[in-house]
Amino acid sequence: QSALTQPPSVSGTPGQRVTISCSGSSSNIGQNFVNWYQQVPGEAPKLLIHTGGQRPSGVPGRFSASKSGTSASLAISGLQSEDEADYFCATWDDSQDGHVVFGGGTKLTVL
Amino acid sequence: QVQLQESGPGLAKPSQTLSLTCGISGDSVSSIAVVWNWIRQSPSRGLEWLGRTYYRSKWYYDYGLSVRSRITIDADTSKNQFSLQLKSVTPEDTATYYCARGSIAIYEAFDIWGQGTKVTVSA
Known about the structure:
heterodimer, A: mainly beta, six-stranded mixed sheet, three-stranded antiparallel sheet, 9 strands, about 0% helix, B: mainly beta, 11 strands, about 55% strand, globular
């Protein structure tokens, strides 16, 4: 059972906009930045969004993120076939001396 | 260009101690601008943060809840690497193990990952 809750899967057609939700609590999302990672099968996760909504160099502007209270979301606009991957949210949890928590991951399928 | 490379045995027997090393190139294990993390991934447990080490005039260590009683992370400045030791392993510890850098400039988000090393715990 992951500390952060994500839908197991989402899907969309090319050009569409999809969102992936990440639900947490006051001790994690409620107090800290949420980071998002993209993982293509067989590869290590890659940082997609950090510090609340900043994109590392090379990440397209189609990816954006937001947060409200104890929930966060990742939005992908202008969906492309190469966006098909697993997406994970992560943040710091201030409880029990502090630790990093991950979401269970969301598989994005581009139809 | 910063790169991380995990190394260690791909197979461990139940009750043994699992030892992995993360070699760092392009950065320093004793940099005060980063933290060094171990993360694992399995189909049953998903991504799981195991712990981290970092240097701020002295070495600090933080460990994840699920492994706190069994884990040791250490840094070796002479070899520019950090390591993971996980004691009393069970089949539940079968996973792909990643080392990852957390950068202070971006609130310790994991911006560099190793390729991962698959570890199987089996008799």
